[in-house]
TrEMBL record:
The name this protein goes by in its record: Non-specific serine/threonine protein kinase
Residues that span the membrane, as ranges: 217-239
One family name in Pfam for this protein: NHL
Superkingdom as given in the UniProt entry: Eukaryota
PANTHER family to which the protein is assigned, alphabetical: NHL DOMAIN-CONTAINING PROTEIN, PTHR13833
Transferase keyword on record: no
Gene3D superfamilies assigned: TolB, C-terminal domain
Organism in which the protein naturally occurs: Apostasia shenzhenica
Key word Acetylation present: no
Keywords: Membrane, Repeat, Signal, Transmembrane, Transmembrane helix
Amino acid sequence: MPATSTLLLFLPSLLLLSRAVTLVSPALVLESGYSITTVIDFNQHHPPGGSDAASVRPFALQPLARSQNLLLLLDSSRSTFYSVRLPLSQESEVSLLSGGGSIGFSDGDATSASFNHPRDFAVDSRDNVYVADRINHAIRKISSSSGMTTTIAGGYSRKSGHTDGPAQNATFSVDFDLVYMPKMCALLISDRGNRLIRQMDLKPEDCEDPQQSGKGLGAIPVCFIAAMALLFGLAFGFISRPFVTSLSNVSAIAGFFMSLKSSYELITLFLNAT
């Protein structure tokens, strides 16, 4: 067989071999020191939480801000949200949060609410859950205090599109995600289908950090400071009364009380600001 024919015969094999070498030898920087462990296997065992928890297909996970011993789990295939108790193990308790396993568009408690294959959600500072219910063209809210699911955007329109304005009249594409921005007290909407970044302002109580609320001196300490300042002023006036013999002394005492009043106003302003 001529050399040229032999080369042509083996050329495809050589090309495939070079392609295989390229696939298994990419320009990677492999960093060691990490390990992977399966902590819950829904295929093998039924974790505590009832028969419903046995059929979970985890799609997305996110920790809760306030409930540090709970993890939020979304099963998009069943349109259902679960809470998983930490630390994670095969015995972790899995509880229904909202959805009930049915596909639809309804609000209500954990078993009455229904979604349509959501794929993304966000959690605010008070553990309220905001669901990108994309096929229903709506944004839903699961309240952390009542457990009730409500529709906060897209409730009137219920169709795809690009409409801003009052949230219930707004429309979205069928491909959007949510991000909670605590400093803005808002949800940012990555509306991929419309190639937009949009913003939905939340209620102030949704963004209040429970760990920060109640801090500061508050109204009772302000009253206490005011009472102490008044008592101090009266005591000072009573003690200094025998020594007030001239107009200059009177002016000095008046100046003292004016400075005391200014200090009190500054303290009050600071407390109101905090």
